[in-house]
Amino acid sequence: MSRDTNSRWPGFFKLSIPERISQLAQRAGLDEADLRFLSQGEHLPQHTADHMIENCIGTFELPLGLAMNLRVDSTDRLVPMAIEEPSVLAGLSKAARYLRQGPGISTNVTVPLMIGQVQLMGVPELDRAKQRVLDAKPELLALANTLDPKLIAVGGGARDLEVRILPSEGEDDPVGTMFVVHIIVDVRDAMGANAVNTMAEHLAPRLEELTGGRARLRILSNLADRRLVVARGQVPVSKLGSNGDPNVGADIAQGVMEASVFAERDPYRAATHNKGIMNGIDAVLIALGQDWRAVESGAHAFAARSGRYRALSRWRVRDGVLHGEVELPLAVGTVGGIIESHPAVRAAFAILDIHSAAELASVAAAVGLAQNLAALIALATVGIQHGHMRLHARKIGLALGAAEEELGPLTEELQRRGRIDSETAAAVLAELRGSRG
Ligand code: MEV
């Protein structure tokens, strides 16, 4: 089936879930199985779940939504996101609409290099051991590259080896100096944990021989700082705000920049600022069956790389344009894991139309940037509760049977009264209908 790749979709939110699914299936060219999964809510089968984890007693669900308007590297993307928090999809779709008014979001992705660590204790002569390991690099890399022929066949493999000596931290240090070997592996389209852990475990005995030490931990590092993504976007200040007033746009842009600098300076604010970025990224990663805990830990470790925890993004106003940038490690994969076995993940891949880990990392980073912009605009203007309350009021109105044209006046009146509950909504609805005769 052919795809309509436009991610602008005004009015999607007004459709019923079955209507959304059937239109999406046409647009995204979904196959029968994906369509069946989405429309019948065919959950992860229990026998599949039982093979994934131990002591399985069932499955667990989250709402799956679709973010609109995103354009990344000149390609429109409809982005599936699994998340329980209201306002995230609405905010993201709105910010993505701003960001597509300029050239759209552009990204840069590094070569997918992951790091495996081997910890060696009790190494007797540190400098000599270091030299011996470095001299043996060709042999060690060759050994590592015997382990995963599929990875080698697709152009990946172990690339380099580094030694780090972590000195003892003084008299109270309970274990003394540590000798740590990093093996650096190009993991191509895999998240990489399996390939890297296998290599680290396999090299450990030879490293013990070379160093005279005892190998202890052999595991990848989630601080994937050689596997980075940068996403950049810009919005003409005049386009910000809904009424086209240039003063409003300038004030919003100034507010976003002030919020950014706050997070750049203060770890207390940076933690929340980065949480907003990860609201978007995690929701994409969960829908796409990724190890979002790995990405979370990598993102926060990267945010603290200078020794102080900082914002992952920055926003500046220059020459009438708001410029934003986010940078973080994104260890994601399009092969292995639950990608083949989980029906929701398969459907999400089909909707997003992603074919490589680099593409997925680009989209996730772009979502993080747009999500951050959405949060900062809200925080710098009406505040975050406004949007939540509007959505809440809409939901109550819909549950009471309010018509589409009644929802606007109803939510406004509920917000004005500062009371958003069914009883007040029913009274307001009756008044609105009464006043119309
Ligand atoms: C809430 O889930 C996320 C925000 O707190 C992010 C931020 O403060 O930037 C709104």
Structure summary:
By secondary structure, the protein is of the alpha+beta class.
Structural class: alpha+beta
What's the rounded overall pLDDT mean? 93
User: What CATH first level of the largest domain would be assigned?
Assistant: Alpha Beta
Measure the end-to-end span. 50 Å
Task: Write down the overall geometry.
Answer: globular
Strand tally, please?
10
Largest sheet: 4 strands, antiparallel
The largest beta-sheet arranges its strands as 3-8-10-9
What are the secondary-structure elements, in order, as H or E? HHHEEHEEHHHEEHEEHHHEEHHHHH
Provide the CATH superfamily of the largest domain.
Answer: 3-hydroxy-3-methylglutaryl-coenzyme A Reductase, Chain A, domain 2
Number of helices: 16
**At the third CATH level, what is the topology name of the largest domain?**
3-hydroxy-3-methylglutaryl-coenzyme A Reductase, Chain A, domain 2
Uncertain runs are none
Whole-number tally of structural domains: 3
Keywords:
single chain; 437 residues; 3-hydroxy-3-methylglutaryl-coenzyme A Reductase, Chain A, domain 2; globular; binds (R)-mevalonate; 4-stranded antiparallel β-sheet; alpha+beta; Alpha-Beta Plaits
